[in-house]
Amino acid sequence: MCSQDVLDEIEAIEAIYPECLSRLNDGLVELKVPNHEDFRLRVSFPKEYPETDSPHILQVQSSGHDDQYLESLFNDVMHSVYHPGSVCVFDFLTELDGVLGTDAGDGEDDGGNHSHVDAEPVEIDALSGWTMSEPVTDRGSTFIAFAREVHSENDVFHYLQTLKTDRKISRASHNMVAYRIQNDNGTRISDCDDDGETAAGGRMLHLLTIMDVWNVLVVVSRWFGGTHIGPDRFKHINSTTREAVMRAGFVKEDTKHHKGKKKK
User: Per the annotation, which location comes first and is thus the protein's main one (predicted)?
Assistant: First the structure.
């Protein structure tokens, strides 16, 4: 029987990549790699996952490729993203998308078709520079936050536009935004966007203000699962926002210690 962590992870992937996961039986799924659906693999979840063991790749198939080589490659990617105690399949699929996209871009099969070559990196690079939170799933809805450094509103607009070229981001029900910018001349800019999730952007901006972080842009994507979850949605929006900001290094440990000393 799969643990609740594994079941939540499977639900999150189904919400974000609905066409890429098939449940075969308890603890066994078939996956298609997002944006590379001709690559199929079967993955099992051992009882020790995620505490002390990673998911096991049982089979990899793709027409025109060496399956044994792919199995070795996919295992290397799985081992690189797994950290004991944390689920990792979402990170595994995201990393595979980049690995396979890079491999595809190294070929010369397209000859002089430069328009195709130029267009291909857009989706691959959409998440470059962003730090992601762990996905949170609640009653079918999934929340993920993305954070990055910005220094102008032009940065904000550019990075938002690029982020939304990613197919899973563009499919989100809401992409809520908040940012705070402090310029060298002392001027400050802050703004937010609910994107249809009433009051969400304002709450994100309030959290950034409490955390006293600057030159940061945060986007929280929500994939709605069909069940309304009430005020709990704000708890997930705030928790993923905080996690992405912390992971991205905007809050320094020594800064927190100094703040504590000032209170004494």
Answer: cytoplasm
